[in-house]
Design goal:
The longest helix is centred in the N-terminal third of the chain and has 23 residues. Helix 1 runs antiparallel to helix 2. The chain has five helices and twelve strands. Strand 7 and strand 8 form a beta hairpin. Strands 1, 2, 3, 4, 5, 6, 7, 8, 9, 10, 11 and 12 form a twelve-stranded mixed sheet that branches. The protein is α+β, with helices and mostly antiparallel strands. The radius of gyration is 24 Å and the shape is globular.
Length: 246
């Protein structure tokens, strides 16, 4: 059942049912109130399914093993409300996971019985909770790896964070233990290019036009990239905005 066409077939049936039910209602002027109420409920349900039909065009997602410590998702162990711009349409109030192992957005199908992996190439951006993610397509002009990036800050410069999780295995005398381990990559977009940042020196060089001021700001505020990369980068980006004001 790991095929897109299985979901597409179900959606086609739903659309046909909407049409049939609608015509049946118009041809039954003498129906009782209870009967009309039931049909209206059916029409509403199938109408909503037809409205969201493009969203259910994806692959069935098979969950990972239960014996792996941690979880594969971005930040939250449970599904979160969010929105996706998918296949040319915006869908709001969607229950979703962002899977950092496969770099895919996971939702439930319309029956709520299966998980669907949305097709990455059709997903332009999404929001999960308060976090906004954008997709870089393969062969993008900036030379970044294709996939989703967390847009953490946007001003005079832009900060993009890339997250990945991998399953790590540790073997001792008794057994093998598996757990999810997360790896982060950080980028600053400034002066027309993305600079990968893995330390304080990279961060200062990303703001080369205000290099001395940025170095002093980091020292005065006792910012530590190694311990708090996110806080350090957003603080520097905010200060850079102030420096760039006319």
């Amino acid at each position: 059942m790991n095929k897109t066409h299985s979901f597409s077939c179900c959606l086609l049936i739903l659309c046909l049912l909407v049409s049939i039910t609608s015509r049946a209602q118009k041809q039954a002027p003498d129906s009782t109130i209870a009967h009309l109420s039931k049909e209206n409920g059916i029409n509403t349900y199938f109408g909503q399914m037809a409205e969201h039909a493009p969203l259910y065009n994806g692959y069935e997602f098979v969950p990972y093993g239960l014996d792996i410590a941690g979880f594969p998702w971005f930040q939250y162990p449970n599904m979160q409300k969010g929105s996706v711009y998918y296949d040319g349409s915006l869908f709001n109030n969607i229950d979703m996971h962002y899977d950092l192992v496969s770099d895919q957005v996971i939702i439930k199908d319309f029956t709520k019985n299966y998980f669907i992996s949305l097709v990455g190439e059709k997903l332009k951006y999404f929001d999960i909770g308060q976090d906004h993610f954008v997709r870089m397509q393969e062969g993008n002009e900036f030379g970044l790896e294709k996939g989703f990036y967390h847009k953490v800050y946007e001003g005079a410069s832009t900060l993009l964070f890339r997250y990945k999780k991998k399953v790590q295995y540790t073997t001792n005398a008794e057994k093998t233990v598996s757990r999810y381990t997360q790896y982060n990559t950080y980028y600053v977009f400034n002066n027309g290019k993305y600079t990968p940042v893995s330390g304080k020196r990279d961060l200062i060089n990303a703001y080369r036009d205000k290099k001395n001021e940025i170095r002093k700001f980091i020292a005065d505020n006792k910012l530590n990239f190694r311990k708090e990369p996110g806080k350090t980068m957003t603080s520097v980006a905010g200060y850079y905005d102030q420096l760039k004001k006319p």
